[in-house]
Amino acid sequence: xxxxxxxxxxxxxxxxxxxxxxxxxxxxxxxxxxxxxxxxxxxxxxxxxxxxxxxxxxxxxxxxxxxxxxxxxxxxxxxxxxxxxxxxxxxxxxxxxxxxxxxxxxxxxxxxxxxxxxxxxxxxxxxxxxxxxxxxxxxxxxxxxxxxxxxxxxxxxxxxxxxxxxxxxxxxxxxxxxxxxxxxxxxxxxxxxxxxxxxxxxxxxxxxxxxxxxxxxxxxxxxxxxxxxxxxxxxxxxxxxxxxxxxxxxxxxxxxxxxxxxxxxxxxxxxxxxxxxxxxxxxxxxxxxxxxxxxxxxxxxxxxxxxxxxxxxxxxxxxxxxxxxxxxxxxxxxxxxxxxxxxxxxxxxxxxxxxxxxxxxxxxxxxxxxxxxxxxxxxxxxxxxxxxxxxxxxxxxxxxxxxxxxxxxxxxxxxxxxxxxxxxxxxxxxxxxxxxxxxxxxxxxxxxxxxxxxxxxxxxxxxxxxxxxxxxxxxxxxxxxxxxxxxxxxxxxxxxxxxxxxxxxxxxxxxxxxxxxxxxxxxxxxx
Length: 527
What we know:
Layout: H1 2-9, E1 13-17, E2 23-27, E3 31-34, H2 38-51, H3 60-73, E4 78-79, E5 81-82, E6 85-88, E7 91-95, E8 102-106, E9 109-113, E10 122-123, H4 158-174, E11 184-188, H5 195-206, H6 220-229, E12 233-235, H7 243-254, E13 258-261, E14 269-272, E15 278-282, H8 290-293, E16 296-300, H9 312-339, H10 351-361, H11 367-388, H12 390-402, E17 404-407, H13 409-420, H14 434-451, E18 453-460, E19 463-470, E20 503-505, E21 510-516, E22 522-526
Parallel strand pairs: 1-4, 5-10, 11-15, 11-16, 12-15
Antiparallel strand pairs: 1-2, 2-3, 6-7, 7-8, 8-9, 13-14, 17-19, 18-19, 20-21, 21-22
Organism: Thermus scotoductus
InterPro entries: P-loop_NTPase (IPR027417)
Protein name: ATP-binding protein
C-alpha cells in the first residue's frame, strides 16, 4: 500500500477545495480530479501497475485505503473551484477543457496558462464537457458581432435587430464575469423561430457540453446537477414555472444559498450555492413572477422563412469556423471591463452584471446603448407580467377609469369584481379572498409602479389600507415604446379597452396593451 502511495505522490499535488474541503489532485497535463473521481481511479490504477515493477493491480478495497490515506495526507493548500469560468480580483480564467491551457484575462490583455502552479484557481470538469479552441489572437472587439451569422434575427426592423443583437452580445459577455450575477436569458418565439438552436449556439460559444439543453423538470435537484457540472445551463421549451422553481432560478441568478435535504436522510442538510447563467426557451412568456422578471432579460426571435432555413450541420460547421474569432473578441471585451474603472450614470437591477457589461462594451462605445436596451427589455417583461395576470390587468383598467382607490383589500376586491362584471362566475386565476389579493398586490407592486401607478399600503385602527393611483411622469422602462395610433388610443378616436386585458387584433397581429401617459393618465398602446 505504501508503495502505491509513494508512486502516486511523485506524480500528483494534493489540495482542498475552498469552502467544501473536498480533496483534489493536480495531475500532469493540466488535469484536476477529485480523489474520489472514477477518472482518478482509472489513471492511478494504471500508473501503479506501470511503475510498480511487479504488475501490481490494486483491488477496490485497497484503492479505497489509498484514497483515504491521500485525504489524510493533504496539506492546508486550498483553491477556489469553478466550472469553465473562474477568477480572482483583477483576473478572469476561462477553461478550455481537459488537458488544455486556461485562458487568463486581465486588464492588460489575455494569454494562456499551461502550468497548474501558475493558476490561482482550479476547475471542476465533467467527463462530458467538450473542449473549446484557443481564442484567435488577431480577433478584434467588433468581431463579437459575428454571432449574427449564427442566430436568427431576421424578420424584424433593422433597429430591433441591432437592439436584440446588442442584448445577446451583452448577455454573452456577462457570462464571463465570475464575480457578478447573471440575468436569466429568455429566448421567446413561435415554433420554427430557431430558439433551441440559438440557445445551443450561445452555450457552444462559452461552455460546450455533451448535454446542450435540458427539458423542464419539477425536481430542483435536476437543475442543481446541471449547474454542478455546467457553467451555462439551457432549459428548453418551458411553458410555466411554479413559484418554488422561480425562486430557485432567482437564487441561481444571484448566487444565494439554497437548502436541500440530502437524499436518504431525515435531517442532514445540504447547502447549494450555485451562480450560473441560464437560458430559457419558450413559445409563450413563462415569467410571470416579478422577482424573476427583475432578474431576466428577454429577446424575441421570429419564424425563419422556409427559403432561409439552413441545415444544422452547416450552421454548426460555421460555428466551429467563427468560434475562435468570437472568443478572441469576448476576451478583449472582458479585458476592457477589468481595466475600466468609470461608472455608468445609472445601474438597473442586477447591477454587477450591468456594470461589467457596460464597462466591456465601452470598448465599442456601446455601453449606454446596452443599458438602454436592457431597461426596455425588462420594462416590456414587467408589462407582460401585469397583463397576463387577470386580476392585475383588471386593476390597471380600473385605475385608468377611476383615477384612484383607497380602502381595504376586501373593498378593492369587491370594486374590481363589480367593475369587470365578475359578480358570479370568476375567471381562473382570480384571487379567492382579500388576503390573496393583498399578497398579489405586494408581489406585483414593482411591476405596477413600472407601469406608471402608485401603490402604497399602511396599517390603521380600522384595518390595512391600500392606496392606489396614477403616477406622474412616464416610466423610464417604456421610453422608446410610445407607438400609439388611432386604433388603440381613445383620445385619438380609438375605443377604450374594457378590462385592461391584452387584446390581439386579428388583422395585424399586434397586441394592444395599456401604457402610461406623461401626465399621469394611462392610455392604450401598441407593442
